[in-house]
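Write out the 3D structure for:
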Amino acid sequence: MHWYTRIAYGLLWLAARLPLRLHHAAGALLGWGFWVTNNRKRRIVEANLALVCRELDAAARRKLARACIRETGIALAELVGIWSNPRRTLALVREVRGQELCDEAIACGRGVILCAPHLGAWEVANYWLGARTPFATFYTAPPHPQAEALLRRLRQAGASTQFPIDDSGVRRVLRHLRAGGVVSIMPDHVPRAGSVVAPFFGVPAATMTLLPRLAQRTGAMVLVLFVERLSCAAGFRVHVRQAPAAITDSDPLVACIALNAAVEQCVRDAFTQYQWTYKRFKARDGSGMTEDAYAAAGVPS
C-alpha cells in the first residue's frame, strides 16, 4: 500500500475503536443530510417505495422513505465501526436465530450456499461466518488499485477467499462447493448476464440465475442469512433460515421466483434496513415495465 493508503487505514482503524452509538449517531446525521438535500439516494428510495408499497398513501410512503434513508446513513457510517475491529463486531452479536441450521449444513460436507441479501449489517455476516468456517465470496475489484488494497486490508478478518465475478471465478466456486466448501452470495444485484425476470414485492425484477444454477450443479445446501441491526446501537441479531426447496428447480423462472420470495420474507422483517437505494427495478426488455421508474423520478442514470 502507498503511504497515503496506510494513513487512511490508520485513521479508519482508530475510528473503528469509537463506540458504535457514535457511528450510528453520525450515520443518522448523514441520512438526514441525504433527505434534506433531496439527493440521488432519496429519489431512488422514493421511486422504489412507490413501486413496492402501492397500498400506502403518499404521506405514509414519505415517512417510510425517511426511515429508510436514515438507516442508509447508519449502514454507511457503521462500516467504519465494523471493518478492522472483528473482536468487537463479534461481541456485538447478541443473538443468533437458526445457528443449528448453519452448523448442520457445514458439518454435512455437501457444500453450502448462503444467500445473503443487502439487508441490515451485511458486513457483520462475514465476520460471524468467518469465525466459524472458511468461506468464499464473489468480488468486484474497485477501479483504483489503492482503493482495492485498502478494502482488502479492512476486510481481511472476513471472507477467507474471494473469487472474481467472471467465468473463471464461477468455475473456481463450482470446485469449491463440490469440495464441500461454503460460499456467500448476494442475490439481489441486477446481473449483467444470466438472469430471468421474476417478481420482487410484486414488481418485475431482473434476478440472477447463478445462485440456483450453482445449487443444482453441486448439490450444495442453500440457506438464507442476514444480520439485523438492533435499535439504540444495542448490537446485531443474526438470522439463518432454510431456503425454499424450489430454489433448486430446473426451471430458472421457478427457481428465481423462490429466490426472490426468500429475500422478500427477510426484508419484511427489517424493511427499513434493506438497501432501497439500489435500482433493483430497471426497465429492460422482457421486464414487463414500459416506463423507467427512476427516470420518471428524476434520478440521474
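The first strand starts at residue 93 and ends at 97.
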